[in-house]
Sequence to fold (275 residues):
Amino acid sequence: MRSKIVTYSVLTVGALAFLFPFYYMIAGSLQTSPDTSIAGAFPHPSNLTVENYTAIDGRINLLQGLANSGIFTGGVILGTLVFGVLAGYALAVLRWRGRSATFALVLLVQVIPFQLLMIPLYVMIARDYGLSDSYLGMILPFFINSTAVVIFRQYFLQLPKELFDAARIDGANEFRLLWSVALPLVRPALLTAVLLTFIGPWNEFLWPFLITKDATMQPLAVSLANFISNIAASTTNPFGAMMAGAVVLAAPAVALFLIFQRYFTSNDLGSGVKG
Fold:
């Protein structure tokens, strides 16, 4: 009993320590007069306002930035799921020459920093393809995620081979096997890939900043960075406005994790085979 109390106490303290910066950000976004000290985490009710959100929305279009971030992130997630599932299934279930070498290349891609590829990617996408200031130009470098390929491969490897053999005997082709047999059993992998992929493009700054010059095409992370560097000093409460922008940027990601966190637990993959 005592060990459980100690365990839960330690976990509670750790959770509060991790949540405190987010709470401090919300509190700072609601303050009329900025207080950057620790006492600012507990503002007086008379010092609370929502004008900081109005102030930053008047300088940058929060809704447009959120829409751009949503389109960018949605496109990346779509590519991640489609190509991740197809590649993971091919690497785990199908038998073909060069499969192990291909998987080794997938692992190798993960150790190459994206910053190393940024200049050739910019030349190719902006100059050769003419896709600067476009959603497709933002999405293409992230359309295939090697991490998602590895995740799906590992999940597909856990599936009993008897399921696929039985379906093949019944005349099912590989796409039918993938859609009707494999995918229903790897739903935790789908949700995991979505959640892990979401954070990257949603918070991505460097590539959208490089490929977009039109402010109406920039995701919220880029718009917020431009506000902090160029516009914030001219506002009445720069600290509060910056915190308000950060809250708007972080809120969708936090909400997504709170809603879907219970789906991280894998289902019993072996339940589909009797005996």
Summary: Confidence is low (pLDDT under 50) at residues 265-275. The CA atoms of residues 126 and 185 lie 40 Å apart.
